[in-house]
What we know:
The protein has helices spanning 23-37, 43-48, 52-63.
Amino acid sequence: MDAKFGYRYVDRNSNYFKLGGNSLSATKLLVEIERRLKCKLTLNEIFSNPEFEKMLNLINSKQLGMEVVEGEI
């Protein structure tokens, strides 16, 4: 964390929980995602996809009506 400016570097690979997120804040995040993006996630999905890029991929796939399958091609 940059003490001078009061922020951390966050990118798409940042982990929500390593940045200080917890189950209570994750619940609030779920509410905001549903309100702003019209996409319903579960708490389990947040815990299973804590990196922002994975969360965004999950949201995009749900909005497109697709299932996310992880693995090698």
